[in-house]
Q: What sequence folds into this?
């Protein structure tokens, strides 16, 4: 069966609208990203080298560049459209950002010239099949500087199927409720988001019985993913934060 909306990340309109709306439409978006920043501050990390996987419109990178003035960042994404939005957003930080166009399964690590001290990702890794997730986690461990941190903020299954299903429906509820609070100047962006979100609902709820393909929303339990990180060698692994469908998991590469 052909994937539903498989080219969604390669549309300029999608990239622009996602940048405008994600902080309103994704529950806990800023809360979870800010938790990563808080952890890094608590770890007294200052001159960080950040690699953001599936960096999208560059929102997390922008936060890191603001909070850590001596930081440099690698932006990695396979979408020209999202990259163009990010380059405009991060223009004033141009000398501190290196852009890499690649999908996760290609040899992107060969383009990294300085070992990252932090690797992050948000709402991206869940598009990979299980084996490719494991390969990516291993690659992140190998690329990461000793003592560095890996964080993945992503859509994940929880402990029971019942609660997972409720989390999916909560997102549907949340997006509908946002209609009543968004500013008038974002109404057209809201409608465009909801048009794309209907495809998400079709993939994950209406057609939940259909086997997942690479590129779909392949939600896996956060416990299984934590086990994978531990098996690879990450220490201090944890669910650092959770909000409904989204979990912030991660770990540290030992010295």
A:
């Amino acid at each position: 069966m052909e994937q539903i909306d498989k080219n969604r990340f390669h549309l300029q309109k999608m990239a622009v609208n996602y940048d405008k709306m994600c902080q309103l439409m994704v529950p806990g978006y800023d809360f979870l990203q800010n938790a990563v920043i808080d952890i890094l501050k608590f770890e007294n990390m200052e001159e960080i080298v950040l690699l953001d996987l599936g960096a999208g419109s560059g929102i997390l990178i922008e936060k890191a560049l603001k909070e850590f003035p001596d930081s440099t960042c690698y932006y990695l994404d396979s979408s020209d459209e999202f990259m163009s939005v990010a380059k405009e957003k991060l223009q004033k930080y141009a000398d501190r950002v290196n852009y890499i166009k690649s999908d996760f399964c290609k040899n992107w690590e060969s383009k990294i010239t300085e070992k990252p001290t932090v690797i992050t990702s948000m709402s991206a890794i869940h598009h990979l099949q299980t084996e490719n997730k494991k390969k990516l986690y291993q690659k992140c461990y190998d690329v990461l500087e000793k003592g560095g941190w890996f964080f993945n903020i992503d859509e994940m299954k929880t402990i029971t199927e019942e609660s997972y299903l409720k989390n999916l429906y909560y997102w549907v509820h949340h997006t509908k409720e946002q209609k009543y609070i968004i500013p008038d100047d974002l109404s057209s962006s809201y409608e465009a988001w909801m048009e794309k979100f209907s495809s998400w609902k079709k993939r994950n709820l209406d057609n939940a019985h259909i086997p997942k393909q690479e590129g779909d929303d392949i939600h896996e339990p956060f416990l299984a993913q934590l086990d994978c990180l531990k098996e690879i060698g990450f220490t201090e692994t944890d669910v650092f934060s959770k909000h409904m469908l989204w979990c912030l998991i991660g770990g540290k590469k030992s010295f």
